[in-house]
Design goal:
The complex is a heterodimer of chains A (about 425) and B (about 290). Chain A has about 425 residues and is an alpha/beta fold. Chain A has 20 helices and nine strands. Chain A folds into two domains: about 190 residues, 3-Layer(aba) Sandwich (D-Maltodextrin-Binding Protein, domain 2); about 200 residues, D-Maltodextrin-Binding Protein, domain 2 (3-Layer(aba) Sandwich). Chain B is about 70% helix and about 0% strand. A two-stranded antiparallel ribbon of chain B has the order 1-2. Chain B has a single domain, classed as MetI-like fold (Orthogonal Bundle). Chain B has about 290 residues and is an all-alpha fold. In chain B, helix 3 runs parallel beside helix 7 and helix 11 packs antiparallel against helix 12. Classes of the chains: A alpha/beta (about 425), B mainly alpha (about 290). At the A-B interface, helix 3, helix 4, helix 19 and helix 20 of A face helix 11 of B. Chain B: Keywords: Cell inner membrane, Cell membrane, Membrane, Transmembrane, Transmembrane helix, Transport. Chain B: One of its GO terms (cellular component) is plasma membrane.
């Protein structure tokens, strides 16, 4: 009796392993480290547990740049993963590769897999960044955020200032905070994204010709216009007065905000999850980006940052069916709402937003809907749809360099922006030559 | 009579060096050739198309003032790291050489930092010097120094020089200590009898006798500063602020891997390669002549 049951067990185990071995495997390379990486692993594990035919292997490959570079190098060697997470500034490079057949566009993937994929379920401001000229989705939005103004409510109250809504008010608030003993009142991270790209979109100013590069590779930068130059000069002047302290290219200045040295900090809404854990000494919240009243009467809309999932060509069809199925899983309102609430990334489907509302998330965690409101403030215009410039990863570094020259007083804003535009245009021409 | 090994078979010696030759060809000559080749092409990131552009990648580099500044930065960085790491190591070695008690523990402690990977060494210093979190930055600010290496390029360069030198001191220390111990005590004792002060003894006897070690270390340190410090800069300043810490090897990386501009990156590697070959020749032809073996 006992022997039989053991035998049955063994037999079942054998079939089980047999089935597991037959699972089609999908490699998914991502750039989500730390807490975010754990959540991506959880998504993959949940999906694998629920699927009888597919196995998704999520692998962390370093930061956004490293992940993208690794995938491209792997592609050249014929060892590419099925799915790779690429940040928004890599979009032009991926699209150019798509024209040559390296990319399996998401709309095509879903069609081939027979999945009824409703593109309109996604937020327009998110999806418009990643569609082709015929409005077809090329990559699946996964984690999208937008810059917001984070503020230290306790410090503002102590200094007796209101939450600023315009740049004049930011300056005034910073001055009062400084008088009240806040060492470095104002700062930001990812400066090209927050102070040039989003500043421009927020005030409905184009960064470059050809609809910010969406309409053609022969685009040229125009962000050395008076509005942007004036804005950069304002921050530089605040720096001289001790109201602004620069703290690095990416998120390095986060430390300044968390330890209370900085009370007004512009950066991604996706810092929410981390702040909730780390900030215990004061009350913090987020609000929309300030408006430059000399440039516009009302804000347009913010543009996103973050990353999407691109599917690379060169694998078997059953595996692609799994990719489509996995994407379907990721787009579920539950998955999306969980991701949004835990991290501060934008809920990228309307359903996930509605679900979060129903669950009362915005009442328990006030301010967390700032990002989505900012993105859907108005219908995106050609200037506020996003940016699509080739070699933009490198161009962002040029902008970083030129801005740092302003913060350190080596150049004024006009000189720096002129230089950035000139150097950036040279790289745009190079990209055009290599990809046409 | 001279001792000579005679191979009976004429094939055997070639066979014995073949593995080494194969390694050199596969890992050195082949990549170098590929770098040389792609430096004449313009290529898209995924490698679908490449077009011959002649010397364009090179002319573009020399028209770029940033690239020329990078030469200067590399030179300052390399010389400072070599000087700092070698002089401190020599001082420590001389001191350690005189220690009688617990000598091994001192030596072990001094050799320790060598086990730290360059990227980690960078990160350690980066945290110490971080304007918001770092303890050293805090002391500096209390002492009235306005420390912010995110904005101040000279401070950033100083930071990476100190971090790179700190890591290399242990290695230099080992070699200097070995060098010191091989100097015959009788020479120094003779000088002492002639009433030479310790200072004079060091400069007229010890230091000249150390020149082979010093020369060897100079070559090693410069090569280290030029090439092996990439990880350190990548992990800390990423070449900034502006391009204050963007040394040549970091540029090769950022053009090739961040920018996916393989042609220009290859051209930079070729230039760097030429530079190292030239440097090595100069060192062996001119500097080595002054070395007493």
């Amino acid at each position: 009796m006992k022997t039989t049951s053991i035998l049955t067990l063994a037999a079942t185990a054998l079939t089980a392993t047999g089935a597991a071995a037959e699972k089609a495997e999908v490699d998914f390379w991502h750039a989500m480290g730390g807490q975010l990486g754990e959540m991506v692993d959880k998504f993959a594990a949940d999906y694998n547990a629920g699927s009888e035919t597919c196995q998704v292997n999520a692998v962390y490959k370093g930061n956004y740049t490293e992940n993208m570079t690794a995938a491209i190098a792997a592609f050249r060697a014929g060892e590419q993963p099925h799915v790779v997470q690429v940040f928004e500034v890599g979009t032009a490079t991926m699209m150019a590769a798509g024209d040559k057949g390296a990319i399996y566009p998401v709309y095509q993937l879903m069609e081939d897999a027979g999945i009824n994929f409703d593109q309109s379920a996604y937020l327009p401001a998110v999806i418009s960044y990643y569609t082709d000229t015929e409005d077809r989705l090329l990559s699946l939005p996964f984690n999208s955020s937008t810059p917001v103004l984070w503020y230290n409510k306790t410090a503002l109250d102590e200094a007796g200032v209101e939450v600023p809504t315009t740049w004049d008010e930011v300056e005034e608030a910073a001055r009062k905070l400084k008088e009240n003993g806040v060492a470095k009142p104002f700062s930001f991270g990812w400066q090209s994204w927050t102070q040039i790209e989003n500043y421009s979109a927020w005030h409905n100013i184009e960064l470059g010709s050809q609809q910010n590069g969406f309409a053609g590779l022969d685009t040229e930068f125009t962000f050395n216009n008076d509005a942007v130059v004036g804005h950069i000069q304002r921050i530089a002047d605040m720096g001289k007065e001790g109201l602004f302290a620069y703290g690095g290219r990416r998120g390095d200045s986060r430390a300044q905000f968390v330890n209370g040295e900085t009370a007004l900090w512009i950066n991604s809404s996706a810092y929410y999850g981390g702040f909730k854990n780390d900030i215990k000494d004061f009350e913090f919240s987020q609000t929309m980006l300030p408006l430059d009243t000399e440039v516009a009467d009302a804000p347009q809309n913010g543009i996103i940052g973050g990353a999407t999932l691109w599917v690379l060509q060169g694998h078997e069809q059953p595996e692609y069916a799994c990719v489509a199925d996995f994407f379907q899983f990721l787009s579920q309102p539950d998955t999306q709402a969980f991701w949004h609430q835990e991290t501060g990334y934008v809920p990228i489907t309307t359903a996930a937003y509605e679900l979060s509302k129903e669950q009362g998330f915005y009442e328990t965690d006030p301010g967390t809907d700032t990002a989505i409101q900012q993105l859907s403030l108005n219908a995106p215009t050609p200037a506020s749809k996003g940016v699509r410039f080739g070699n933009f990863v490198q161009i962002r570094d040029i902008i970083n360099e030129e801005l740092e020259a302003v913060w350190s007083g080596q150049k004024d804003a006009r000189e720096a922006m002129d230089a950035a535009v000139e150097r950036g245009n040279a790289l745009l021409r190079k990209f055009q030559a290599a990809n046409s | 009579m001279q001792k000579r090994v005679v191979f009976r078979s004429r094939l055997l010696p070639y066979l014995l060096v073949a593995p080494q030759i194969a390694v050199t060809v596969v890992f050195f000559f082949w990549p170098s050739y590929q770098a040389l080749e792609s430096s004449f092409f313009l290529e898209d990131a995924f490698g679908f198309s490449r077009q011959w552009v002649g010397l364009l990648n090179y002319t573009e580099l020399f028209d770029d003032p940033g690239y020329l500044r990078s030469f200067r930065t590399t030179l300052i960085f390399g010389l400072s790291v070599a000087f700092l790491a070698m002089s401190l190591a020599l001082a420590l070695a001389v001191a350690a050489n005189r220690v009688v008690r617990a000598a091994t523990s001192y030596r072990t402690l001094l050799i320790w930092p060598y086990a730290v990977a360059p990227a980690l060494a960078g990160v350690i210093w980066y945290f110490l010097m971080n304007p918001s979190l770092g303890i050293v930055a805090y002391w500096l600010q209390n002492a009235g120094v306005d420390w912010n290496h995110y904005v101040n390029g000279d401070q950033a360069l100083l930071l990476v020089i100190v971090a790179a030198a700190w890591k290399q001191i242990s290695y230099n220390f080992l070699f200097f200590l070995a060098g010191l111990q091989s100097i015959p005590r009788s020479l120094i004792e003779a000088a002492a009898i002639d009433r030479a002060t310790p200072f004079q003894r060091f400069w007229t006897i010890t230091f000249p006798l150390l020149t082979p070690t010093t020369f060897f270390l100079l070559v090693v340190n410069l090569v280290y500063a030029f090439f092996d410090t990439f990880a350190l800069i990548h992990a800390t300043t990423e070449g900034g602020p502006v391009d204050a810490t963007s040394i040549l090897v970091f540029r090769v990386y950022s053009t090739g891997f961040v920018g996916q501009d393989y042609g220009s990156s290859a051209a930079q590697s070729v230039i760097l390669m030429a530079l190292v070959i030239a440097m090595t020749i100069v060192q062996f032809r001119y500097v080595e002549r002054k070395v007493v073996y």
